[in-house]
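From the methods appendix. Each design record in this collection lists the tokenized structure first, followed by the designed amino acid sequence. Records were kept in a plain field format so they could be parsed without special tools. The example shown here is representative of the layout used throughout.

RECORD:
FOLD TOKENS (110 positions):
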């Protein structure tokens, strides 16, 4: 496990994207909600494209669902299942993360 960020980074936001490969693209995103963290690869099951057009923009306007900006697929935050749009029932690829103290750790093998 490797430190990705701190819970303090989520003071004003609910979701952040991260470049874990060093290529300048946000390849994963992490959502912090109700004391839990959820993380997914930034790849839409519809086409494989990144979900976001702008950095850290991964949620629908009400913050209740993940939104792919390309063709408006919507995914549940807790399990990444698509519940609306062009790929219903398909899922985002989860990334294993955990909270230790105030750090969010990522499983670099996932
Ligand atoms: S690429 Fe995500 S909805 Fe089409």
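DESIGN:
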């Amino acid at each position: 496990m490797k430190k990705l960020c701190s819970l303090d980074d989520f003071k004003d936001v609910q979701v952040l994207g991260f470049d874990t490969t060093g290529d300048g693209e946000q390849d994963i995103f992490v959502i912090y909600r109700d004391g839990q963290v959820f993380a997914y690869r930034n790849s839409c099951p519809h086409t494989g494209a990144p979900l976001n057009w702008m950095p850290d923009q991964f949620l629908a306007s009400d913050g209740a669902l993940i939104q792919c900006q390309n063709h408006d697929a919507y995914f549940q935050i807790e399990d990444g299942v698509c519940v609306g749009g062009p790929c219903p029932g398909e899922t985002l690829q989860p990334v294993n993360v955990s909270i230790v103290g105030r750090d969010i750790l990522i499983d670099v093998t996932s």
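APPENDIX NOTE: The chain is about 0% helix and 35% strand.
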